[in-house]
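Appendix B, record 7
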Amino acid sequence: MKLLGVDFEVISSRVKEVLTEEANFGSLVEKLALKKAEEVYERTFEERLVIGADTIVVLENRILGKPSDLEEAREFLKILSGKEHVVYSGVAFVWDEGKHTLHESTKVKFRNLPEDLIDFYVENYRPLDKAGAYGIQDLGAVFVERIEGDYYTVMGLPIGKVWEFLNEKGWWK
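Structure tokens (predicted):
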């Protein structure tokens, strides 16, 4: 949001992230983002636009959300090694007059990851708060051989689509 020059405040949602086995991954991340945005909107009593987001990693129709522990983080990175996966990020907007959701997806191809790199990453970075156990914006960038799509979707917020919506509503600048 800083890139857009928008004043914002981060308020964490209290929604427990529960992944369902839904065939439409875009719809799933939109629903999760909407739950988060609605919860924050209802909890904050000021008139404001609330933006919620959620991201999942999908490998061969298996959803990799946030790992539950460091061992699962290692497992995620090992199974992603050398393979292509898709990152889905959903965004929800909630304000006094309405709600809107959107999503974006990006293909990511990982290099073959040596085990010592996986161990170093898991031990020195924060894989438990990231879908698929990696962040493209940190050392996880070296895992990536190529991407097809929006880099910011992999980071968790497809900023171009967010800007389009804000601009369309007259909320940008």
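Remarks on this record: The chain has a mean pLDDT of 92. The chain is about 30% helix and 25% strand.
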